[in-house]
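Troubleshooting: if your tokenizer reports a length mismatch, compare your output against this known-good record of 228 residues.
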Amino acid sequence: MHYLLTHLDDAWALTVVHLRLSLLPVLIGLAIAVPLGVLVQRAPVARRLTTATASVVFTIPSLALFVVLPMIIGTRILDEANVLVALTAYTAALLVRAVLEALDAVPAAVRDAATAIGYRPITRWLRVELPLSIPVMVAGLRVVVVTNIAMVSVGSVIGIGGLGTWFTEGYQTDKSDQILAGIIALFLLATVIDVMIVLVGRLATPWEHAARPTRRRSVVAPIVGGAR
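Known-good structure output:
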């Protein structure tokens, strides 16, 4: 903890890098996963193919992908693009499954009712299905974001890892306090981002947390005069 408190400037600079490398792939992954999930939700063959592909992508070791990507996309080994592209692939693979689960959680009766009152498919999705799927989608998003924050640290092995560089530097110089500082900083970062996602999810779904009317307790008046 002492190392972290005495290197706050370095911690902030590394945190900014860590946030960029972990959250930018989430935004791009959402832009890919949400439309893809909507397209394949009710197409059984396309859905199975999409989920199978997502599972295969996520089984690829992250470090191996970081090293191989420069040969595929023509970047330098120390280019941040390698980490961004790899994490975007992992993020989209995880989020597409979360999006499908979220859309499946919308009751069919609600869809039918929206169709019956005249909503077209796009309007129905934007005004009915998407809002109702937010709670499940937020739960999946929390897992993805925390996973990304952890996986960015792996990039420190190739020289790009945000707060993860404290792990490699601490290991190379035999500074356990630097490694511990990196762990604490990562934990705090993941916790803060997770809480922020929860708060945004609650703001986006006020009906889920509306105050329920309190039940009045039924009071039975005592019988003063019994039957004789």
